[in-house]
TrEMBL record, chains A, B:
InterPro entries, per database record: ArsR-like_HTH, HTH_ArsR_DNA-bd_dom, WH-like_DNA-bd_sf, WH_DNA-bd_sf
Alphabetized CDD domains for the sequence: HTH_ARSR
Record protein name field: Winged helix-turn-helix transcriptional regulator
Domain HTH arsR-type: 22-66
Organism phylogeny: Archaea, Methanobacteriati, Methanobacteriota, Stenosarchaea group, Methanomicrobia
Amino acid sequence: MLTLSFSTLPELVRLLSLLGNEQRLAVLGAIAAEEKYAREVAEELGISRPLAAIYLRQLEKLGLAEGISRTSDEPPYLRRCYRAVPFEVVLNLDLIVSLERSKDETG
Amino acid sequence: MLTLSFSTLPELVRLLSLLGNEQRLAVLGAIAAEEKYAREVAEELGISRPLAAIYLRQLEKLGLAEGISRTSDEPPYLRRCYRAVPFEVVLNLDLIVSLERSKDETG
DNA sequence: CATATGTGTAAAAAATAATTAACACATGTT
DNA sequence: AACATGTGTTAATTATTTTTTACACATATG
């Protein structure tokens, strides 16, 4: 399991704002049990395929999803699947305060 | 310390989107060490007083800040101070999945 | 070449959030 | 009544995010 930690406030904010959206949490939930590709997720959640792809990319970028290229004997011969990465974040006031402080020192 | 837990996905999303913003984290950081009133926070962070007040209210509403009315011998004779409530949130994939599930059952 | 099925990406439109200015109100003192 | 200092709230403006549509591309097969 991935235990997320943060060195900067913007990093933390990036994660929190990514997850502070029901749609993106739904995408994460959709790929928790088994890997899926973007079109599958889109159809399952009733959102457009490009949007599902964007969200999967964003989740992947933050380390919350893993992208895997899969090949097949029939079309499409190549597709990109994603599956959720088990993770844990501990968020508390001390963390926020210490990140604020280190921002001030850098600034 | 307050250990936050969630019964619904919207609740979780409300917290995450509230904190997924550098400005509001700054407000929380500003009142972590000692209580302050809205105008003080606004001046310290360089934002407008109504905005500081709105954020303090939002943080209070989610239990992350505590509002206290203070009286004084000179104007203003009454002012509302806020201080951060130490809190901790553990966020992980299992939580997200279980909240998604309970939403489906309710829906 | 066409086919099948999925993907990447950008522009544009729509929706939402952020933020301010303005104004009325609160409180006790003079 | 005026004063001092802060607050509550809303409408309007600005900024940001969400989301879609459209189009080109990827891949192997026929």
